[in-house]
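Blackboard transcription, Thursday session:
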Amino acid sequence: GAGVSQSPRYKVAKRGQDVALRCDPISGHVSLFWYQQALGQGPEFLTYFQNEAQLDKSGLPSDRFFAERPEGSVSTLKIQRTQQEDSAVYLCASSSPLDLNTEAFFGQGTRLTVV
Amino acid sequence: GIQVEQSPPDLILQEGANSTLRCNFSDSVNNLQWFHQNPWGQLINLFYIPSGTKQNGRLSATTVATERYSLLYISSSQTTDSGVYFCAVGDNSKLTFGKGITLSVRP
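(Written on the board underneath:)
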């Protein structure tokens, strides 16, 4: 596609509910990233994929957070047993590090509200 | 990890004024990007500039990698320039963002 696409744009979950957030990267982009942005803060790194391999998950805040990219394209971020502190905007980005330019492009994000 | 500091935290301009936004970082990097986050939350790419100088219309940016800082210049500001400006630095595997600079341009 023309840009990074995320769905849903908005999600309201009851505390304890599981949620799944989807990211469609720019076609052909090898690298995919997930970030979490709390209100009034800059985005913070969660995890990184190169193709289907999850090379860095150091930013995932707890074992309730899980990400996958089984075919090296679409990625899903899953949050189990959501808590109020999980409320944030979740941003996905992709880039193509096969040349010297590793510019990352971001989707519009999914705003998660846990009530 | 890398520390990123942006200044000033808030900036109010009259339409038509010029401004300089600064980003300091604590370690050498091979990726530096400037973004504008619009009111709907979209991060819009302004510059990919790990070193050197680039210009795009009324905006320009300079990164001095050896001294670990980058500057974003906005000339002849417009109300549509309002929003939050982020500097992000890192390598191929992740970016570290500053806290952002909130710019308000008044008509």
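Lecturer's comment: The radius of gyration of chain B is 13 Å.
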